Amino acid sequence: MKIQKKISVVFSVFVAAISLYVSAIFYERSMNAQTEDLRRNLTELAISASLMIDGDTHTKAYASGDMASPEYLGIRDILRRFKKEVPRVRYIYTMVRGDRPGVYKFAVDASEPLDENGDGKISPDEDVSPPGEEYDASDFPEMLSAFDGPAADKKLTSDKWGSFLSGYAPVYDSGGKAVAIVGIDVTAQTIVAEQRALQMRILAIFLSGVIMALFFSRMVSKGLTNPIQKLIDGTKILGGGDYSHKISLKTNDEIEFLADAMNSMGENINDKLQKLSTLNKVSETLSSSIELDKALKSSLDVVFELTSSPAGLILLTDSSENRVEIAISEGVRPPKFVENDAFIGHKRFDTRLSESFREWIKQPANNTAHGIDELKKIPEAAEAVEWLDAAECGYIAPLIFKDTLCGFLLYTNKLEGSGDFLRTLFYQITMAIENARLYYSAITDGLTGLYIHRYFQIQLEQEFLRARRYSRFFSLLMVDIDHFKSVNDTHGHQTGDAVLKEVAKILKYQTREIDMVARYGGEEMAIILPEASAEGALRAAEKIRATVERHTFSGGLNLTVSIGAATVTKESPADKESLIKQADAALYRAKEEGRNRVVVADVKGKS
User: Fold this and answer.
1) Which end of the chain is more exposed for a tag (fewer CB within 10 A), N or C?
2) Digit-coded pLDDT (tens) for 212-221
3) H/E element, 344
4) Does 389 share its domain with 536?
């Protein structure tokens, strides 16, 4: 067989197979969509019918058991009129719950006696179902759930009346109670007819596609010879996922152009897959923790990995976007702070953010990474150049979330990628940091930066349960600033607030990373010490007490603290509330014994 015919046959079969596959998928999805549309339509019809029925009247009609009662006839006429308006409905009726689980009883049947088989008699299956006739609904889960809300059969169901797809909806009385359900049946013949019409339409589309494929393959095969085989082989390799493969063709015609286009497509797909993989990895890394410190560390690590940068830092803006703070830095000299300015080494790092730079960087065209050489030519970016120079970094990227400038990312080496890729990457980093900031602000005290009382209670409960489950111990410290009221009364609340901040800072610096420091209330603070025995708690408390005693606070004040400690052991206490009482009692005794001391409660809760 000639190559032209081979190409024509192969191409025709290939396109026909694709057409068949697509048609099969389209048919399956269309059938599912059609069924879902029918179920939704049946449910809506059942709801419409149920809204036309008064539940109290229905209760009377069923209670009387009289098919000639005004209530029964009234509901039957409503259902018959409804059926007349919707010809596709075969049966419509109401049911009530039966005396046994899974059994319903007919209440009102809107059908009319009809000799459907033509034998001259009205058989029981052709007659109207009287009130009280039982119906076994145990095999129809949608019907069983109809008293709780509208539903429709997921597939055709069969009973003595035939095969149907049915919809149901509850009927409510004046008290809002579901007293009955309305059932609406569409026969299988109606559904099959609609499905057959759909099949014919899809068949017509498929045949049209095949005919077009045959015609197109005939036309194409006339102008293609040997090079097409290389193109097909290369396409198969690309289709198999090897997007780095190159199709080598030199025909100086459209075939060569197509091969070049396929190569470009493979490069683009490979590049996008790598970027998607990078973004997915970044997303997984950044979503691994909602804690602010860890989110900042993860964000910096991601940039370091993508750029092989040895150094970088993240700046976060305040609520007014007028200042920045160095939230985290790595590979950069530790910053020193003098009043409102920071210094990295001997280079000034101005923490003020000018309005001109803020507005410039928030413009969509500028919302991307910038190099220091580029920024030196932009007057509005003077402080960015100063930051990069002080940190010895080469690039800066804004962190913008919902038109809010949240901060900046500074790093050493260039990050390759398109503008869209970089914006997406930095947006992911910004979202992770902002989510962590929101979470941090929700669980921390605005003045001291310590965890709030409610979060402390949650963590204490978890630590208590963990200690009980694994037979471990931990300790709780209750810390109170001695004579704090006199500080407020004598020096003012601003000084008092400054003292609280400094004490909070001491507590955080003098505890381990796994310890949790919280503001319990007023000038009282609490510290959870996981895996700490009574002796360990005493050592930690003494370290804190001594540090506070040596510290000179704002205004030249010298203050002390009293600390009560309690430890969870296998024997006691019984719950976290008892643990807090023990630590509080120990703190109270420390106050009574002269303050500026640590008292540890014994295992029985005595101080």
Assistant:
1) N
2) 766 766 666 6
3) strand 341-344
4) no
